[in-house]
Amino acid sequence: MKNNQFINKIIWADALKLLPQIEDNSIDVVLTDPPYFLDKMDNNWEDKKVSSVKYHHTVKSLPAGMKFDREQGKRFYSWYLEASKEIFRVLKPGGFFFSFSSPRLYHRMASAIDDVGFEIRDVFMWLYTQNQAKAMGINHFIKKMNISEKEKEKIREKLNGWKTPQVKSCFEPIAMAQKPADQTYLNNMLKHEVGLMNTNIKIGNNMYPANVFTVDNINELIDKAFLLPKPTKKEKGEYNDHKTVKPLAICEYLIKLSAFSKNAVVLDPFIGSGTTAVAAKKLGKNYIGIDINEKYVKISEKRLKELNEKPDLFETPKETKEKLENTNTQMEFQYFKTSSSLLT
């Protein structure tokens, strides 16, 4: 097998320095959640710097990621263009590249991926209900105005509820790109064992795979079409303090859709706390993980070790399965009632 020195390992390294060591046309799927370049969340981000308001540049009291700066997108594009060039080289013809992003900078990420030769085949939307509202009020600006208190109060009343242009973000986009196929898709699949998507994989209530999914129970209609198992605290690990741990079910879903070969290799060049590797290993696939942060490399290795020792930690809990089954049964019954009423 190619890349023997890297297969089924988590490597502590700068991805842009290690990726050139991976062989050409040797990876089936790349699934990653890169740094978003919001405040200090760049390619050299450090947990302490991101957590401390000392390193925020505009409004010191803002949590990381709330600063608006056009240069963020430019820096992200330039850096991800270089990463995407290497990812394009290492992927097999027809290989898939899934890349998480923030809604604000998705266009920069997709452009970088597109500009190196990938075909942007689709975009997935991870829908969720809980997130921090990021809009800021303007009372502190009004307070500083050199006018009377009476005039200030009039402005407050006039602009009551009007805040900075940031609504609550409740979805995360995931680019789905593909390296161009070698001749036809059929030829590519027979030759390289990658390039088609597995529509036997179901979502929600045994539904055809979709480019929208959620791990939250939202309502009957959305749950029926798009629900994936909810992540558990055990799955993440109590020791895991990574800020953006992705649900295992999401990574499994994307890998099951795209990785065909029994010897498929799934690469994550920004592995974080290891969810991609855990998902790949759980599904019987090979993995290569890279991260510049030694702390997260150790967390990834610990989670993989737990998968060997306590595989039940990463299984969908019985109560979650039962809840999904009960929800599906209720929806089917409701559908039957509705259909019956239409016929009478």
Can you describe this structure?
With 344 residues, this protein is an alpha/beta fold. It has two domains: 268 residues, Rossmann fold, CATH 3.40.50; 35 residues, no CATH class. Strands 1-8-7-2-3-5-4-6 form an eight-stranded mixed β-sheet, with helices on both faces. α11 links the parallel β7 and β8. α3 packs parallel to α4 and α10 crosses α11. The N and C termini lie far apart (63 Å). The C terminus is likely disordered.
Describe, in short, the structure shown.
The protein has 344 residues and is an alpha/beta fold. Helices cover 40% and strands 15% of the residues.
Structural topology:
Layout: E1 9-12, H1 15-18, E2 27-32, H2 47-51, H3 70-90, E3 91-100, H4 106-115, E4 119-127, H5 139-144, H6 149-158, E5 171-178, H7 185-192, E6 212-214, H8 220-226, H9 233-236, H10 248-258, E7 265-268, H11 275-282, E8 286-291, H12 294-309, H13 318-343
Parallel strand pairs: 1-8, 2-3, 2-7, 4-6, 7-8
Antiparallel strand pairs: 3-5, 4-5
Helix pairs in contact: 3-4, 10-11, 11-12
Distance from N terminus to C terminus (CA atoms, Å) equals 63 Å
Number of domains: 2
**Count of DSSP H/I helices:** 13
CATH architecture of the largest domain: 3-Layer(aba) Sandwich
Secondary structure: helix percent:
25-40%
Main sheet strand line-up: 1-8-7-2-3-5-4-6
- Radius of gyration from CA coordinates: 23 Å
The beta-strand count equals 8
Q: Main beta sheet: strand number and arrangement? A: 8 strands, mixed
Strand-and-helix sequence, N→C? EHEHHEHEHHEHEHHHEHEHH
CATH topology descriptor of the largest domain: Rossmann fold
Q: What is the name of the CATH class of the largest domain?
A: Alpha Beta
Shape: globular
Low-confidence spans: pLDDT under 50, at least 5 residues?
Answer: 50-60, 335-344
- The helix/strand class is alpha/beta
Strand content: 5-15%
Mean pLDDT: 86
* CATH homologous superfamily caption of the largest domain: Vaccinia Virus protein VP39
